[in-house]
Amino acid sequence: MANIVVIGTQWGDEGKGKIVDLLAEKADIVVRFQGGNNAGHTMVVEGEQFISHLVPSGILQGKVCVIGNGLVVDPAVLIEEMDYLSSRGIDVGPGKLQISDRAHLIMPHHRAIDHAREAMKGDKKIGTTGRGIGPAYEDKATRRGIRFADLLDAESFPEKIRAIMEEKNFYLSNYFSADTLDPEEVIEKYRGYAQRLAPHVTNVSITIFNAIRNGRQALFEGAQGTHLDIDHGTYPYVTSSNTVAGNACAGAGIGPKEITGVIGVVKAYTTRVGAGPFPCELLDEIGDRIQEKGAEFGATTGRRRRCGWLDTVLLRNAARLNGLTGLAVTKLDVLGGLAEIKICTGYECNGQSLADFPTDLKVLEACKPVFETLPGWPEDISGVTEMDKLPINTINYIKRIEALVETPIDLVSVGPGRNQTIVRRNPLA
Ligand code: GDP
Ligand code: IMO
Ligand code: MG
């Protein structure tokens, strides 16, 4: 039996949704363990596209899906997503979708503070998704958050909201000169959410533990990417949770001995949405071409994604931080038609070569990528489903990534569709 964590190795949007949907075929339970609706995970099945922000990507395969304690959940967004999936004929009843009673709620004041802070920062802004993620995690850390268990306690919920909103309204109005919110309206709205979601709320740690104990296979679906991790990413240009594989345990409520493998999803080039350093960014027509061919627009905010060459300094960092046992390379088809493809093999900083990803952003900003150039391939590979049918230059690109990252590539994705994938080794088989 295998229990696998799937995480992003770069700055998000690597194609985790597609890979989780594909691997979910052989899983019994699929668990999100951090983040919130800042995530946008795309699945394409038989030409139909689904984008999920909170519901795990195993839902299309009809698997039991779990929203772990490590998430911050906007209940309005979750209900909208459930209604949407339901309207497309997908079962999202309590038998298929469980929510941790310990997961925290995103409240209207979290979104208001997120927006007000970004507006105040001007050109120094992080470029958050504006979903209230940071302010919600902040309240969790300062022990003032509202959990699903609190939402369902009809007696004490109103008092908790009135108390916290007094302070939030003072902050919004006096510090940001922003509009305040009416606590009674919020209480009423959230009462409705409580009614709707109550049948799904449970202690999911027990669900996952029992599934594993009964020989079921679990898949843990990461959101964002390793370099958006609050500890290990390009701080402060990061999200507010731990995105690395280790957090699958804390964010789902299981012990580390249950995890048998970690798949790092890596786009065949690099992208980033929002602000922050990006050593391999291409600000030329090749960058524009990759952006257009790869349709690199954010699945959550619709923002244009910044594009650049593949960065293996970043990937080696991700391999270590997550204990990767395998890689899934996505969007290889997008590089087709380029005469030459570059891979960043190291950084040079003030005349010195740097072996590891630096902590200090000033150092990172001064880093110049060292590139190796490989020949491209003119062929359209989006219909290839076997490794040995790929052009030799594509195979050489894959092998070079494996060698530089010292991690085997288990899956190769050549298009957005579930079937547009070469499975060299299925970690759940
Ligand atoms: P996630 O956040 O990691 O799940 O990734 P997103 O869904 O935000 O972004 C990945 C985008 O690339 C989506 O639009 C996917 O449909 C698409 N995609 C995934 N794999 C491939 C691939 O191999 N080729 C192409 N052309 N598109 C892909
Ligand atoms: P998926 O799961 C790409 C980025 C935002 C911003 C920073 C902080 O689809 O890969 P936040 O709203 O989290 O406080 O924003 O993190 N960001 C993502 N970028 N993919 C994501 O998720 C992201 N989630 C957050 O753009 O730079
Ligand atoms: Mg995404």
Distance between the termini: 9 Å
Q: Please state the second-level CATH architecture of the largest domain.
A: 3-Layer(aba) Sandwich
Number of domains: 3
Which molecules are bound besides the chains? Answer: guanosine-5'-diphosphate, 6-O-phosphoryl inosine monophosphate, magnesium ion
Q: Which percent band covers the strand fraction?
A: 15-25%
Q: What is the strand tally?
A: 20
Output the structural class. alpha/beta
**Number of helices, where a helix is a run of at least 4 consecutive DSSP H or I residues:** 13
CATH superfamily of the largest domain: Adenylosuccinate Synthetase, subunit A, domain 1
Helix content: 25-40%
Instruction: Quickly name the level 1 CATH class of the largest domain.
Output: Alpha Beta
Q: What order do the strands of the largest sheet run in, or round the barrel if closed?
A: 9-7-5-2-10-1-11-15-19-20
Most strands sheet: 10 strands, mixed
Note the main attributes of this structure:
alpha/beta, Adenylosuccinate Synthetase, Chain A, domain 1, binds guanosine-5'-diphosphate, single chain, 4-stranded mixed beta sheet, binds magnesium ion, 13 helices, 3 domains, Adenylosuccinate Synthetase, subunit A, domain 2, 429 residues, 10-stranded mixed beta sheet, Adenylosuccinate Synthetase, Chain A, domain 3, binds 6-O-phosphoryl inosine monophosphate
Structure description:
With about 425 residues, this protein is of the alpha/beta class. The strands form five sheets. A ten-stranded mixed sheet has the order 9-7-5-2-10-1-11-15-19-20, sandwiched between helices. Strands 14, 16, 17 and 18 form a four-stranded mixed sheet that branches. The chain has a two-stranded antiparallel ribbon with strand order 3-4. The radius of gyration is 22 Å and the shape is globular. About 50% of the residues are buried. The site of magnesium ion has 6 residues, from loops. The site of 6-O-phosphoryl inosine monophosphate has 24 residues, from helix 4.
